[in-house]
Amino acid sequence: MGKGGQDRRKGEAGWEPSLSVSTYPAWARDVPECEEEFKVSADRGLSSEEVLRRRLVYGSNELEKHSGPSIWQLILEQFNDTLVRILLLAAVVSFVLAWYDGDEGGEMGITAFVEPLVIFLILIVNAAVGVWQESNAEMALEALKEIQSEHATVRRAGKVVPNLPAKELVPGDIVELRAGDKVPADMRILYLISSTVRVEQGSLTGETDAVNKTHHKIDTEDMDIQGKECMVFAGTTVVNGTCICLVTQTGMNTEIGKVHSQIHEASQDDVETPLKKKLNEFGESLTVIIGLICALVWLINVKYFFTWDYVDGWPRNFKFSFEKCTYYFEIAVALAVAAIPEGLPAVITTCLALGTRKMAQKNALVRKLPSVETLGCTTVICSDKTGTLTTNQMSVARLVAIGKKIGVVRRFKVDGTTYDPHDGRIHDWPIGQMDPNLQIIAKIASVCNEANVTKSGLQYHANGMSTEAALKVLVEKMGLPAGSDVSHTGEGFHCCQYWNSIAPRVATLEFDRSRKSMGVIVKSDSGGNMLFVKGAVENLLERSTYLQLLDGSIATLDERSRKLILRELQAMSSKALRCLGFAYKIDLSEFATYDGEYHPAHRLLLDPSNYSSIESDLIFVGFVGLRDPPREEVHKAIEDCRAAGIQVMVITGDNKDTAEAICCEIGVFEPGEDISSKSITGKEFMHLSDKKKYLRQSGGLLFSRAEPKHKQEIVRLLKEEGEVVAMTGDGVNDAPALKLADIGIAMGITGTEVAKEASDMVLADDNFSTIVAAVGEGRSIYNNMKAFIRYMISSNIGEVASIFLTAALGIPEGLIPVQLLWVNLVTDGPPATALGFNPPDKDVMKKTPRRSDDSLINAWILFRYLIIGLYVGIATVGVFIIWYTHGSFLGIDLSSDGHTLVTYSQLSNWDRCSTWEGFKVSPFTAGSRVFSFDSNPCDYFQSGKVKATTLSLSVLVAIEMFNSLNALSEDGSLLTMPPWVNPWLLAAMSVSFGLHFLILYVPILAQVFGIVPLSFNEWLLVLAVAFPVILIDEVLKFIGRCNSGSRTRRRSQKHKKD
Question: Taking every annotated instance into account, which residue ranges of this chain make up the domain Cation-transporting P-type ATPase N-terminal (predicted)?
């Protein structure tokens, strides 16, 4: 059986290991050449001494263990973010201010430190989520190790060593593989012990079915993994057969080792998501702005730090007021705290988490939160074909049978895209009147078949070759001839059971690549034996002499009939159908009475080289065309991608013709489009001089016969071009590209654990349309995130304007840091989170994707923020001034509490109160408290400002609630998008107002926050001052819509002119 070189012994003495062994093209060398290169003989193996010498050079046969960053490094990395660092500074500052605030108020308990503790808690949660995500990055490498073999049967020093630890293998070892074994290293097959050997290597190559292996060399050294038929690779599994192999590569030099290296390399290149980049840029700008405003506030008020006397016309006796310096430092710090959106990270995390729940409902399981936002700016989807664009369930699409006479064929169209026998039908089928020709086709398809189809729940699953499973489904759709005895059938695939019961198999001629066919010897109705054969149509025609006609009669297969069949074959092949022919033989000579291994003819079956002669002088009966059909919903999904400006690239390991046909059918290519420049093999792409130019083409692109390195190169080049790339994959070989892509998408059903661990998102249904739905959801989530970022930032600008105006006008401090932190963290939080529930725009998938470098806030939006922020500042400071200076406002009586009115001049010069003659202040009430200033009237501007401060805080809260309504849409009016389109927002506003009422009307909380209850009239004043923010933004939105419309018209006119 071709045990090449087994009786030749190679001397090991003096052999010096060469690093070239790791690149030796063993697949392109004969068996004796391989034995010579590795200085080993197949029957003896390596000696113990030689094994030790080689292990010193090549090391153990295991994947490297890359030491990841320590837990402390991961934690520190989470603070390598501008916004987080600002928050950390805010936490420290708020801690100090809380200390002073508590000290001055006599409350040094834990309540004084609620806000800094909350900020620290936000930072801890943010860091914990980041550490968890980072630690998951190494899980793909760990999952890769799980698929390695642990033991091997090895021949050493002439003896067989069973269960040798696989890590002890070295190049040159002789290994025996049996069915069920996991391949322990990359190896060259020396010879087959069984007639055939099949290996499941789909996880490494992407092939759907197990592949047949041979010991014959390949003619070229430049060959992809799929084409190395005499090689077996580490981590793959032997499905059937036994063979002897020579270890050629171990450890990191194996194909799976290369994948390991690529995953590790890709994990080192993790780049920031588009949103993270924008937030970092925003944080850096915010840092500069905060610094400038704080400095400006200090400079405006530096005159209060110093006092001096004039002597002889010259300033003398300079005095520095530390108290004033500290006071304005607190104002500057309060301004900084106001400028920082402390709740933003928490709200973003919450919104992304809610987004993952929405996506999970659509079968998209997001493993990394930032991926939700990144999906929204995806510009290119690189999709696998098998199982993603197609069902990964082979089905028969055409059946060709022989007609009534020579030169006539019958064609039947077959519907159905799954293994469900009730899915689809055969058109123009003679139900219950199957002629002898159709009966023999059904019999061969059923009996000459190794597959099984089983039902699990509502789904049908194939066990064995997918093409054979499709044939069994076809047999069920064909039905049974009239008068059939169905008492044998039982349940399940009863037609197949029927044909197998009347033609029991007695021997199998296994498939091999040389003759491209499989045969079975069965018992016939007459008591003798028949041979059923299925295989490549051209090969069966070459070995066929006769033709069976419709009525069962036999005719000579003449040249005319042969050409007719070949024309039909060509027509079906041009539609990317995989064709299988059927033939049989009645006169079996020495096998006519064959009944098992004790029959004299059994010796002929032991040598597969005899199979071609046994399968000769056949009677050809017909053939079928099979395909992996596209999913029904994919065509619309690709149309949606085109409308959304997303380019679809198909990268598959399948052959070019099949892939092109599927891509044309599902709409990757336009009808009638010249695809000669858009369809290319992976190898051809790698040889292009300008790869980026090729990738810049508009429309769909197809890469067939692609290997993992091709996928990685495509992703890398697209990212260099500024594209945001989503990549699908299911196998071990896809993991590096999944890791490298902006969004790695693994298959949930067919995907390996390695691919899932390397991915950002897992498709629970392996469906391309789910990706498109997820992109739409990602866009909607991004729009909602922009809404609450707009809301929070505009609110913060208002707070900054309020503090700045307070300092610039010289009036008493209206809002203290503790109150601002409460607003930023608690009051703003619910509405900001609720904005994440905004319904998606109807045209969300009709807009082109945003660029990853598009600014979060454009010039017009910033201008709007500034206008709104300026109004917030004027309103909060204005209501403070109104209380001190007006007894009524807009007809609202404010004098019922008995407070004393002062002039604006007095208010803005309150620090000189001690110099005022005859200044007196009457007591006033606030809730159940009475404030009296008999001992120190000037305290009216310190402790006496509590009512004015409460009004300012309440106006700020009310304005921000109204402003959240403005954030429902960037440009849409509240008349077209009313508040009830997002009921969650109305509920959140109620919660925020409720929280504000809580701190107002619960005495202990009111004391902590330095506020007092308000009367009904005072609430009317708050609403009157706050409501105009809606009217102002409506005007600004109207201007924005007008400008946007005029720009669109100008672009349209320019396009028409062009």
Answer: 25-99
**Sequence-ordered list of residues with C-beta below 8 angstroms from that of 520, at least 6 positions apart, any chain:** 447, 448, 505, 507, 508, 509, 531, 532
Range of the domain at 737: 364-390+631-766
pLDDT digits (tens, 9 = 90+) for 803-837: 778 877 888 888 776 777 677 766 777 887 788 77
Count of domains for the chain: 5
Query: In the chain, pLDDT over 90 holds for what percent of residues?
Result: 22
The domain that holds 475 is classified in CATH as 3.40.1110.10
At 850, list the tokens: 């945003």
Query: Sign of the CA dihedral 977, 979, 982, 985?
Result: positive
Average pLDDT over residues 165-171: 91
- Give tens-digit pLDDT for 857-906: 677 777 888 888 889 889 999 999 998 888 888 888 888 888 888 888 88
The reported pLDDT for the residue numbered 1 is: 38
> Are 384 and 524 part of one and the same domain?
no
Question: Which residues are CB-neighbours of 786 under 8 A, at least 6 positions away?
Answer: 856, 970
CB 713 within 8 A of CB 691: yes
Active site annotation includes 384: yes
Rounded to two decimals, the pTM is: 0.69
Contact 503, 524 (CB under 8 A): yes
Separation between Cα atoms, residue 305 and residue 327, nearest integer Å: 10
Instruction: Give all strands of the β-sheet with 380-383 in edge-to-edge order.
Output: 364-366, 761-763, 743-747, 725-729, 380-383, 647-651, 701-704, 679-681
Q: Band the pLDDT of 34: cuts 50, 70, 90.
A: very high
Q: What is the mean pLDDT of residues 641-667?
A: 87
CB-CB contact of 368 with 133 (8 Å):
yes
Q: What pLDDT, in 10s, does the model give residues 173-202?
A: 999 998 888 899 999 999 988 777 888 887
Alpha carbons 178 and 305: distance in angstroms, whole number: 90
For residue 459, the SS3 value is strand
Residues 290 and 261 in one domain: no
The neighbour count for residue 1030, using CB atoms within 10 Å, is 14
CA atoms of 188 and 985, how far apart (whole Å):
66
Residues 261 and 308 in one domain: no
Q: What is the DSSP string of 131-186?
A: HHHHHHTTHHHHHHHHTS--EEEEEETTEEEEEEEGGG--TT-EEEE-TTPBP-SE
**pLDDT 10s digits, 402-446:** 999 888 999 999 998 888 898 889 999 988 789 999 999 999 999
Q: Does the pLDDT value for residue 106 go beyond 50?
A: no
From the list 101, 173, 181, 384, the catalytic residue is 384
Integer Cα distance of 10 and 417 in angstroms: 55
Q: What band does 736 get if pLDDT is binned at 50, 70 and 90?
A: confident
Compute the Cα dihedral for 937, 939, 940, 943 and give only its sign: negative
- List the one residue out of 114, 123, 112, 129 whose CA is nearest residue 89: 123
Domain closes at, from 241, 269, 297: 269
Compute the mean pLDDT over every residue in the chain, rounded to the nearest whole number.
81
Tell me how many degrees the CA angle 868-869-873 measures, rounded to the nearest 5. 120
Tokens 């007591």: give the residue.
923
CA of 490: how far to CAs of 142, 460, 463, 477, 501, in Å? 46, 18, 20, 17, 11
In 3-state terms, what secondary structure has residue 416?
coil
Q: 132 versus 1009: which is more confidently predicted?
A: 1009
Residue 466 and residue 486 in contact, taking contact as beta carbons nearer than 8 Å? no
60: three-class secondary structure by DSSP: coil
Task: Provide the token pair at 658.
Answer: 């099949």
- Which residue from 24, 64, 61 is spatially nearest to 40, judged by alpha carbons? 24
Contact 371, 760 (CB under 8 A): yes
292, 374: one domain: no
